[in-house]
């Protein structure tokens, strides 16, 4: 199958690592031209590629261990970067909080141009209406009565997943630890939605909230269907997160961080299993992506082009899909290797190696070369 | 007029228009905090690199007054005398 990008289109791949950002462009998803490192020695835990409004805007969460976190954006594929003087994300004074890290940057649907969401540490959700230059704190979630009982995962306490229904007012957020929260009114009010997701590490393994959901993603075509990779457990909901059911059968392990869904086709999702909480390596040291095309009823192991031995893990945002046909699948490891597939995971090729730990990967089809 | 000098590490100088030394008038009581307020007023991004939005000095940012790190003195309330140099030095940290 040939990529769907026309002569006037190309592909952009953004790789955020622990020590900077690399950007790559390709006419065919086979050969990539890289620039970088941008923001050398700063970690890049979040990237958003916003292709709306006739431009390609790359937004990045930047965090220097010395100089703190910020959000920058580029409208020229990284040739120049801009950073609002007062910062794109800063906590209001009355919160007494300070931004630690931006974990997620999520451009909204085509129908809502300019709207960009962000998830951050401490656990918070933010919304911009000016293309990601200035964000406003979501007060509904910040003031949620559960807040005092939310905890921190190993990487910190953060809202790391934001899924916005393209039409309507439904927003799902996942946090570690706290689990899934849903808003039906565009983010004004939030309810925990974790029924069926295990929190085996808590005294009550089935609490209302407190789960360590690692990543959620929405089905491309079935409204109300989402998928979750949990801290042990892979789940699906068909009722807008009112209840979740296991879809882990057929996978070599139910632990992992990644959950990707197809840009258009219902029932298709990808995970990258790790052996277990206590052994965060690919099962048997053999890296593989697993894809379902029937909403998790069956899984297909995909490892063509991947190394025979790999003992590095793949973090929750170090994987992405593009919107081409067939869809591209991309991921990076904590060992600094990045793999790309132009055929929905059937075959991979290594497009970068020996980078610092890969924290975030995003890819997009863009206009022009 | 007496002045106070703030010396910046090279990595931060682009955020101050390329300057390695910023000066502030010392015609009244000056603290490290008020000095950083003046810096943030002129160079907002530089100000955010040094302190978070609560006003706290970032963990791995060290500021020295007369050779002493301000956390061992009175923190951001440490007074700075006219003619003294204030140094910004990042911690030796990382991996």
Characterize the structure shown.
The complex is a heterodimer of chains A (369) and B (95). Chain A is built from one helix and 29 strands. By secondary structure, chain A is mainly β. Chain A starts with 8 loop residues before the first strand and ends with a strand. Helices cover 19% and strands 28% of the residues of chain B. The radius of gyration of chain B is 12 Å and the shape is globular. The model of chain B has no long low-confidence stretch (mean pLDDT 94). The interface between A and B is medium-sized, with 18 and 17 residues.
Low-confidence stretches of chain B: none
Count of beta strands of chain A: 29
- Helix and strand element order of chain A: EEEEEEEEEEHEEEEEEEEEEEEEEEEEEE
The average pLDDT score of chain B comes to 94
Number of strands of chain B: 7
Strand content of chain B: 25-35%
Order of helices and strands of chain B: EEEHHEEEE
Lateral strand order in the biggest sheet of chain A:
3-2-1-29
Helix and strand topology:
The complex is a heterodimer of chains A (369) and B (95).
Chain A: E1 9-17, E2 20-26, E3 33-38, E4 43-50, E5 57-64, E6 68-74, E7 101-107, E8 116-121, E9 124-128, E10 135-137, H1 139-142, E11 158-164, E12 171-176, E13 179-183, E14 191-192, E15 213-218, E16 226-230, E17 234-237, E18 245-246, E19 255-256, E20 260-261, E21 269-271, E22 273-274, E23 289-292, E24 300-302, E25 319-321, E26 329-332, E27 338-341, E28 349-352, E29 358-367
Antiparallel strand pairs in A: 1-2, 1-29, 2-3, 4-5, 5-6, 7-8, 8-9, 9-10, 11-12, 12-13, 13-14, 15-16, 16-17, 17-18, 19-22, 20-21, 21-23, 23-24, 25-26, 26-27, 27-28
Chain B: E1 3-7, E2 21-25, E3 30-31, H1 32-42, H2 44-50, E4 61-65, E5 68-69, E6 79-80, E7 85-90
Parallel strand pairs in B: 1-7
Antiparallel strand pairs in B: 1-2, 3-6, 4-5, 4-7
């Amino acid at each position: 199958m040939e990529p769907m990008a026309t002569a006037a289109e190309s592909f952009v791949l953004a790789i955020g690592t622990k020590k900077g950002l690399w950007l790559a462009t390709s006419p065919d998803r086979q050969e990539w031209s890289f620039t970088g490192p941008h923001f050398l020695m700063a970690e890049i835990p979040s990237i958003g590629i916003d292709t709306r409004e006739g431009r390609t805007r790359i937004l990045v969460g930047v965090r220097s261990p010395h100089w703190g976190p910020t959000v920058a954006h580029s409208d020229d594929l990284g040739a120049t970067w801009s950073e609002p003087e007062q910062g794109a994300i800063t906590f209001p004074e009355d919160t007494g909080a300070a931004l630690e890290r931006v974990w997620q940057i999520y451009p909204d649907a085509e129908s809502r141009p300019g709207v960009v969401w962000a998830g951050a540490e401490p656990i918070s959700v933010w919304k911009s209406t000016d293309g990601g230059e200035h964000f406003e704190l979501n007060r509904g979630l910040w003031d949620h009565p559960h807040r005092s009982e939310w905890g921190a995962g190993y990487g910190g306490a953060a809202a790391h997943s934001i899924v916005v229904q393209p039409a309507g007012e439904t927003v799902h957020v996942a946090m570690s630890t706290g689990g899934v929260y849903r808003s039906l009114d565009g983010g004004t009010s939030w309810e925990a939605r974790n029924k069926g997701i295990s929190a085996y590490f808590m005294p009550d393994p089935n609490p209302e909230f407190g789960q360590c959901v690692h990543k959620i993603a929405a089905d491309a075509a079935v409204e109300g269907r989402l998928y979750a990779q949990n801290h042990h457990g892979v789940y699906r909901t068909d009722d807008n997160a009112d209840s979740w059911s296991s879809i882990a059968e057929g996978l070599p392990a139910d632990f992992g961080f990644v959950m990707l869904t197809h840009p258009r086709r219902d029932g298709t999702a990808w995970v990258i299993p790790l052996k277990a909480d206590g052994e965060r390596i690919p099962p048997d040291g053999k890296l593989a992506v697993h894809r379902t095309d029937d909403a998790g009823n069956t899984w297909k192991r995909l490892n063509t082009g991947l190394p025979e031995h790999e003992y590095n893990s793949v973090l929750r945002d170090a994987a992405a899909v593009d919107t081409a046909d067939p869809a591209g699948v991309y991921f990076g490891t904590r060992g600094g290797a990045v793999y790309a597939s132009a055929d929905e995971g059937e075959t991979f090729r290594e497009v970068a190696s020996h980078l610092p730990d890969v924290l975030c990967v995003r890819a997009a089809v863009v206009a022009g070369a | 007029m007496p002045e106070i000098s703030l010396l910046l590490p090279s990595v931060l100088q682009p955020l101050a228009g390329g300057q390695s030394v910023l000066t502030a008038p010392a015609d009244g009581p000056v603290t490290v905090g008020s000095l950083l307020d003046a810096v943030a007023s002129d160079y907002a991004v530089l100000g955010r690199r040094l302190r978070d939005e609560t006003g706290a000095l970032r963990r791995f940012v060290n500021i020295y007054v007369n050779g002493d790190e301000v956390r061992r003195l009175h923190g951001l309330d440490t007074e700075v005398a006219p003619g003294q140099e204030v140094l910004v030095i990042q911690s030796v940290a990382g991996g």
